[in-house]
Design goal:
The protein is mainly alpha-helical. The chain contains eight helices and five strands, in the order βααββααααββαα. The chain has three domains: 82 residues, Orthogonal Bundle (Multidrug-efflux Transporter Regulator, Chain: A, Domain 2), CATH 1.10.1660.10; 36 residues; 55 residues. Strand 4 and strand 5 form a beta hairpin. The radius of gyration is 36 Å and the shape is rod-shaped. The chain starts with 8 loop residues before the first strand and ends with a helix.
Amino acid sequence: MEKSPDAFRTISEVADELDLPQHVLRFWETRFSQIKPMKRGGGRRYYRPNDVDMLRGIKHLLYEEGYTIKGVQKLLRENGVQFAVAIGTGDMSAFEEMSRKNAEAAKAVQDEQSGREAAQRAEEADGNVLVGEAKVKGKKIFGFSKSGPEDAAEAGGDTQLSRENRALLQEALFDLLECKRLLDQAR
């Protein structure tokens, strides 16, 4: 004799219908607080039609979609029990909607991360740009020849820095100290 679609089912009937062992259903009860079959005297479980649909949805997510138990727990927390029931009844539009929302959220996170990376690259590029232009041009740099102060002294050149060159060196030192401070902050 066939049961009415609205009739309660025993754990053995649900296990047969879902093609799962009974111990898996009992285990799922410990992992998913949303699974609450009625229990009669002696601890016998009776599943409502809604419970069976939810179990079918959980089975689909675990076995066919490849979610972990923690992943399904998170989905149930975020989307509610009706999400799993909808999947269990074959209404895949709920799952597709969730997948679409997840894809949009992932794209938004990726776009935000790309934006941050682009801003960081731009900031690094700005940091690589020299502040101001060198005022001394030619073969003498900061009052020295290109080979160094010793050669300038040997050639009879002045080893003292001009006021202008000293200001340039102080500015360069300040920029280097600022770069060091920024690098220390980044660590």
